[in-house]
Design goal:
The protein is an all-alpha fold and about 650 residues long. Helix content is about 50%, strand content about 5%.
């Protein structure tokens, strides 16, 4: 080892301990009184726009709330007048139209600067731009376009159980929860009396008023044959009463899956579309449900850097579980009050009833957890693994309860493995590919929930760490799935993060936890080679959200702390030495950008929602993932963290980077 390299290793030793001890205090300082961590989940202006619509169209509205949301929208407008999906995006027609509608409802006049600039963008781009189908649904509700231009499944699908060849339960849960309201609205073929309808129509192109076609050109002829058949079936359905029964099932689906806070699935758009559906259906007994939905949505608003934002949903279970896991690895015992409170908060959100999952898997049982603070019906594998990792081997008064929940949760995770050996987020064996080609799906990866590298890799990591005979076969099958789904360039694509760095990290930490490194398997070696090849000149890693749209890696020259941490963890988990240049430069990137008492700064969306519609800034990611990467490095160096105490202030001063 060279003298220079030896000095660098000593520098890492000097810095890692103080940084990690400081991050321990940072994380603890951000905890809520109830034991959870509640970071904003920030998307595009879409969420703000839709809450403004709710406030305006479901009186009484909160004028102060609307004005705050409107100002936040105006602050995101691009120089060309449009609104983008992520920072370097040049502007999206549908998002801009939604922002325009919201700003007009917020009281902005046609001559207001933001309105005039948005109008100019819309008129300049309307002929070559398509409307997203979610925007089409909104415009049909508002009476701007006819429902005939919105591709929608017939409500009669609600009459079919999960045992049928095709049912509502074949859709991914995150899409399924939206569909009953949309089908109900389309079946009623009505819209609300929107005073700005003619103004919005003038901003559209003629093709926006026509029905969209399948994204798969080979299905065009089939669609032309299916349209008259669909009309005939609709006539027959109404004549036999099936249409009425299916519409009532749509209504009951909404009411039965309302959360305690009034939302539907704790999602923004599913709740808003359900509000419109119940309101336009006009039953007096549903009025209270609509009011509860509106109140629940208001609870999604947060203030971030002096601006008011509407969250598309909350990420509280996810953030809390990951922070508990980090704190325990940072040396905070589970008997410490802050960790115990968080553990109890997580245990209170255990889900044991799975009405949708049991349509396809009637025997599924055990325990699981969802993503949001309020979620009784839609758990997912990633959150469940995160919660179980956080609660594992809990001591103290919560010990018995946590251990029982842990055992139930492991059983649920094992039951969620797909037939192909991989893991999905919300569903099991939800992979009927033809559903991705339905005309309603214009976002990609929105109709089904097949296995993905990020879900498979992270779940394999969790299962590999268990001393449980049941997990060996599951791990082997998961690794086999990863082997067969690697990209030609050596990367893996990740569904819920951006995008190839995320997927490759998840795959590599899965292999590493299973005891497979780059010296043992070619897939791991190729993944490491790919990660090294996309490292930025500043030592970090960065990937654009455009990767998710393009389906191929698109670099971002400005590195992010979270993506850098993913790459570092993937390489280290694969047996890469801390002495390697790529690791050294990545570590330097994180150390040099650490801010004492604050952590790292990150304001780029590294979370993926839906391609072409939603990308997310997790305001915990910029601190959490670098902490986990540096923790892995510190263990490799044998660094022992000091217990919380006053001496930390002396130790932290030894690191020049701080």
């Amino acid at each position: 080892m060279s003298v220079a390299m030896t000095d660098r290793m000593y520098s890492f030793r000097d810095c890692l301990g103080p940084i990690l001890e400081d991050m321990r205090d940072v994380i603890l300082s951000q905890q809520s009184e109830d034991g959870s961590w509640r970071y904003p989940l920030e998307g595009t202006v879409l969420a703000n726009a839709y809450l403004i619509m709710v406030e305006a169209l479901f009186p009484p509205g909160d004028k102060t709330l609307v004005e705050g949301l409107a100002r936040s929208i105006e602050g995101r407008q691009l120089p060309n007048g449009g609104f983008g999906l992520f920072p370097e995006h040049c502007g999206d027609f549908s998002t801009t139209l939604e922002a325009y509608v919201a700003l007009r409802l917020a009281g902005r006049t046609p001559s207001a600067e933001a309105i005039a600039r948005a109008e100019k963008f819309l008129l300049a781009t309307r002929h070559e731009s398509n409307l997203s189908n979610l925007t089409r649904v909104t415009l049909a509700i508002l009476g701007v376009i006819p429902w005939s231009s919105v591709p929608v499944l017939p409500p009669e699908i609600m009459l079919l159980s999960g045992r049928a060849p095709l049912s509502i339960y074949d859709l991914a849960s995150f899409t399924r929860v939206h569909m009953p309201a949309i089908m109900l609205l389309a079946a009623m073929n009505v819209g609300c009396g929107f005073r700005l309808a003619s103004e919005i129509k003038a901003l559209l192109s003629p093709h926006h008023f026509r029905s969209t076609r399948s994204i798969h050109p080979g299905l065009g002829r089939l669609e032309r044959l299916a349209r008259p058949l669909g009309k005939g079936l609709a006539v027959f359905s109404r004549a036999t009463g099936a249409r009425r029964r299916s519409m009532e099932l749509c209504r009951l689906f909404i009411l039965e899956r309302m959360e305690e806070d009034g939302t539907l699935g704790s999602y923004l758009l599913s709740t808003i579309f359900s509000m419109f559906a119940l309101s336009l259906l006009g039953r007096p007994e549903d009025a209270q449900a609509v009011r509860s939905m509106k109140a629940g949505l208001r609870g999604f608003t947060v203030e971030q850097d002096g601006e008011l934002h509407m969250q598309p949903c909350t990420s509280t279970v996810w953030d809390t579980a990951l922070n508990v896991l980090a704190l325990r690895q940072l040396g905070i015992p589970d008997t410490e009050p802050s960790v115990a409170r968080a553990g109890e908060w997580l245990l209170d959100r255990e889900i044991t009833v799975f009405p949708d999952l049991r349509q396809h898997s009637p025997g599924i049982g055990g325990s699981a957890w969802g993503f949001q603070a309020v979620n009784r019906f839609y758990p997912d594998v990633d959150d469940t693994c995160a919660v179980l990792s956080a609660l594992r081997d809990f001591k103290g008064r919560l010990g018995p309860r946590a251990n029982q929940a842990f055992s139930r949760g492991v059983g649920w995770v094992l039951a969620m493995q797909n037939r192909d050996g991989g893991f999905s987020a919300f569903d099991v064996n939800n992979s009927k590919q033809f559903l991705e080609r339905l005309p309603f799906n214009d976002m990609g990866r929105a109709m089904i929930d097949p296995s993905s590298a990020d879900m498979t890799g992270r779940t394999v990591m969790f299962l590999s760490d268990l001393d449980d005979a049941r997990t060996a076969v599951s791990v082997r099958r998961g690794l086999g799935w990863l082997d067969s789904h690697q990209e030609k360039d050596g990367s893996w694509w990740g569904r819920w993060g951006i995008s190839f760095i995320y997927g490759t990290w998840a795959a590599l930490i899965g292999y590493g936890a299973a005891g497979v490194n780059q010296h043992d398997r070619g897939a791991v070696r190729r993944g490491c080679v790919w990660l090294r090849s996309v490292q930025n000149g500043d030592g970090g890693w960065g990937e654009s959200c455009a990767s998710d749209l393009a389906g191929s890696f698109i670099a971002r020259s400005e590195s992010t702390p979270s993506q850098t941490a993913w790459a570092l963890e993937g390489l280290l988990a694969s047996g890469t030495s801390l002495r390697e240049g790529a690791i050294r430069r990545g570590m330097e990137f994180l150390i040099e950008r650490y801010r004492r008492g604050k952590g790292w700064e990150e304001n780029y969306p590294t979370g993926a929602g839906f391609a072409g519609k939603l990308y997310l800034i997790y305001h915990n990611y910029g601190n959490l993932w670098p902490t986990m990467a540096l923790l892995r490095a510190s263990r490799m160096l044998g660094i022992r963290l000091s217990p919380p105490g006053a001496e930390q202030q002396t130790r932290i001063g030894r690191c020049a980077a701080l």
